[in-house]
Specification:
Blueprint lengths: L18 E4 L7 E4 L20 E6 L12 E6 L10 E2 L20 E3 L17 E6 L3 E8 L6 E5 L3 E8 L2 E5 L2 E5 L3 E5 L5 E4 L5 E8 L23 E4 L7 E10 L2 E9 L4 E6 L4 E4 L20 E6 L6 E8 L2 E3 L16 E8 L14 E4 L9 H8 L7 E3 L3 E7 L4 E2 L1 H5 L24
Parallel strand pairs: 9-17
Antiparallel strand pairs: 1-16, 2-19, 3-4, 4-19, 5-18, 6-25, 7-8, 7-28, 8-15, 10-13, 10-15, 11-12, 11-14, 13-20, 17-18, 21-22, 22-27, 23-26, 24-25, 24-27
Length: about 450
């Protein structure tokens, strides 16, 4: 029996969440069917697919990519993806951008309060509610704020894969591959080109999205850490097959070459009855992340919090790192335990999903964001510095009830005009460091 197979008709309306284990970036294969026998026999590419279905391959990499890096899946669907009307330009979501050079990005630390949720008189779905905060050639960073489900609209992104991080409200993401449900402190990754619809089962929702233009996100190698630690492959889940067999008046929205396009479609595009392959959407619960840290002295680099990364052609350099600052215990002796003051080559966009971030005393709220770019000095604010400098390090610190995330790139993340002119921008953010007093005294060690 194929992994995740179902021996009865299964549609989106009949399930809440069904999953199978997934290991992003390790070439694993899955097979799942919503009707018994919808998948052809192993090793057989039939002249006619079962149930009158169409066979369609979705390739997320070059055909000749190395076996370990190749991502593709075979979909057995009611109609092929080519069956729809032509796309026309559309003006929806004018704040979802793929260019970031309208205004110069200042060499200053930047921080924002949470973007407001749409008011009750507005009808804003996941696509309309997307606002671009910044980006570069490797990725774009967005914040979504929505108050209604997509309903009869579907979406796919031809420009990159989407890493979705809810901060408020659950998301029910119906995809061609099946249903994924995520809540705050979970994430979902939707591969490039996969069609989906986002519903809001609990009402208004807000969160972060990173649009990855580079290599597929994958689990990092562990090196000297060994075989365990960080994100465990077994905790990544991908959906089992589920399909919509619906006809009517629907809309297909596509992001292509940085622009949004729309097309009428007379049926639901989520009509895949069975699939097999290794290129599929997946989810992960950040609360299962296994942090690695020092138990003797010094504060390690933030790479110890790496969940997923998109490698570049340069060994050891990624186009995108996704980092999670999860609950953990700090036990370093005679050490300044919060992140130290630092400057580095990276562009760092941070968001707070839940609780409080241990390196900031105030001003960094759940749903808010900060951006510290290349060689811009930043670190703990004055209150955090004073507290940590006199803390009794013979006792451990238990960092509980928190979840912060970071999208990190090796180059500057250029802020958009909206981000720089937004009323949510904290224009006096720099003052959180003005309380750092001069303590230097050459006569006293």
């Amino acid at each position: 029996m194929p992994i995740g197979a179902r021996l009865w008709p299964l549609t989106f309306e009949e399930i809440t969440m069904s999953e199978q284990g997934y290991m992003p970036g390790f070439g694993n294969e899955f097979s799942t069917e919503a009707l018994p026998g919808a998948l052809p026999a192993r090793g057989n590419s039939p002249q006619k697919a079962p149930y009158g279905l169409y066979a369609e391959q979705l390739s997320g990499t070059a055909f000749t990519a190395p076996r370990h890096a190749n991502r593709r899946s075979w979909l057995y669907r009611i109609r092929p993806a080519a069956v729809q009307e032509p796309y026309e330009p559309c003006d929806i979501a004018p704040r979802w951008l793929s260019h970031f050079d309208d205004v110069p990005t200042p060499p200053n630390p930047l921080r924002w309060d949470p973007l407001p949720l749409p008011g009750p008189s507005a009808e804003v779905d996941f696509v309309d509610g997307m606002t671009t905060m910044g980006g570069n050639a490797g990725c774009a960073v967005h914040i979504y704020a929505a108050n209604q489900s997509m309903g009869t609209r579907y979406f796919h992104n031809a420009d990159g894969e989407l890493l979705i991080v809810p901060q408020q409200g659950r998301l029910s993401i119906a995809t061609e591959f099946g249903l994924i449900e995520i809540e705050p402190q979970e994430i979902a990754v939707i591969p490039r080109g996969v069609r989906f619809r986002v519903d809001l089962p609990e009402g208004p929702a807000r969160g972060y999205v990173c649009e990855n233009y580079g290599a597929h996100l994958r689990l990092p190698d562990l090196g000297v850490i060994g075989s365990n630690g960080l994100a465990h492959p077994r905790d990544f889940l991908t959906p089992v097959a589920a399909y919509e067999d619906k006809e009517g008046s629907f809309e297909m929205v596509a992001k292509f070459q940085g622009r949004l396009w729309r097309a009428p479609i007379g049926h639901s595009p989520l009509d895949v009855v069975a699939w097999h392959g290794n290129g599929a959407p997946y989810k992960y619960d950040l609360r299962k992340f296994n942090p690695i840290g020092s138990i003797s002295y010094d504060h390690p680099d933030p790479s110890i919090f790496l969940v997923l990364h998109a490698p570049s052609s340069t060994p050891g350099v990624d186009t995108l790192d996704f980092v999670a600052f999860a609950p953990r215990v700090l036990a370093m002796l005679d050490t300044f335990r919060p992140p130290w003051f630092h400057r580095n080559i990276a562009g760092e966009f941070m968001g707070l999903v839940h609780g409080a971030y241990d390196a900031k005393a105030e001003g960094f709220a759940p749903g808010g964001a900060s951006l510290h770019n290349s060689m811009i000095g930043h670190g703990p604010d004055a209150g955090t510095f004073d507290k940590a400098s006199s803390h009794d390090t013979s006792q451990p610190d238990y960092i509980r009830d928190t979840m912060a995330i970071m999208f990190e790139t090796p180059v500057v993340i250029q802020a958009t005009r909206f981000a720089l002119e937004s009323p949510q921008r904290q224009r006096r953010y720099h003052e959180c460091w003005t309380g750092l007093k001069k303590h230097f005294d050459p006569a006293r060690r």
